[in-house]
Amino acid sequence: MTTESRLREHIVRLSKSLFDRGFSVGSAGNISAAVEDGILMTPTNSCLGFLDPARISKLDRNGNLVSGDKPSKEIFLHRAFYETRRQTGAVVHLHSTYATALSCLADTDAEDCIPPLTPYVVMRVGRVRLIPYVRPGDEKAGDLIRDLKGAYAAVLLANHGPVVTGHDIESAVYASEELEETAKLLVLLRGAPIRLLTDDHVQELKAVFGEGLKR
Q: What is the CATH number of the domain that holds 165?
């Protein structure tokens, strides 16, 4: 089995895991992963729980469809991250319940949507920026991501949901799960006094686990 074939199978397996556990519903959400000569991406209107590895879209580095079904209409989001964050190996966009809830709340801090509630959200996700609302599939979403100049590994799309990157497909999926679970905690704790990690705590995490964290 070629490296690309294994990656296709990996996308199918991880996508089904997300779907089976309620991180996506219906045909919501899309996932991509970089290969040597382009990008693999889940097709438009496909369900993450029932993907066919042979029908996963393959695009060249210019975004042209090479093989497979037509890619998700959110390809602009994905390409913007690959272009501005050179370390990006995969992108996961979900409509997961609690992260999407935060993206709809008027008092969510646009500069820091997911405050440092736990060490793992700092380590795996970092600072999360809220992106202004544009309709799904609008190329302007890609421009808004490019405007961030690679400073964020994850964003919340206002009234839409999270987009999370990683060095590879596993790290992007795990970071998406960590973001959703932290968003759940934040929603559950609304109205209660919250003890966040201090700046010193965050700096210690950076010192021990690396400087890739964007907080």
A: 3.40.225.10
